[in-house]
């Protein structure tokens, strides 16, 4: 049996949120959310090709705050939800914990867009 070399993926910022994307049945895919108070946060979409031992990525901006939890929809690979801290711009600066569903759109700048509310 041949041992494959380990695969390592690095992030620009610290991360606390990781989830598999189980709605994607054709690929091994994970979502990782970064946690930074100073910079725009990111959602990394990481695909792993187990036959060739290769990682590919797509990075989306999550500008509303640091991501504390991320969850992928089990039914729709284009939908995810994040729990995040949003820092106020006023004085004194306060943080507020929020959550939002998102629709992944990679056609325009790779920015996550809030998913429309369903009736």
TrEMBL record:
The gene is EIPR1. Residues 7-87 form the EIPR1-like beta-propeller domain. The keyword Repeat applies. InterPro entries: Beta-prop_EIPR1-like, EIPR1. This is EARP complex and GARP complex interacting protein 1. Keywords: Repeat, WD repeat. It comes from Equus caballus.
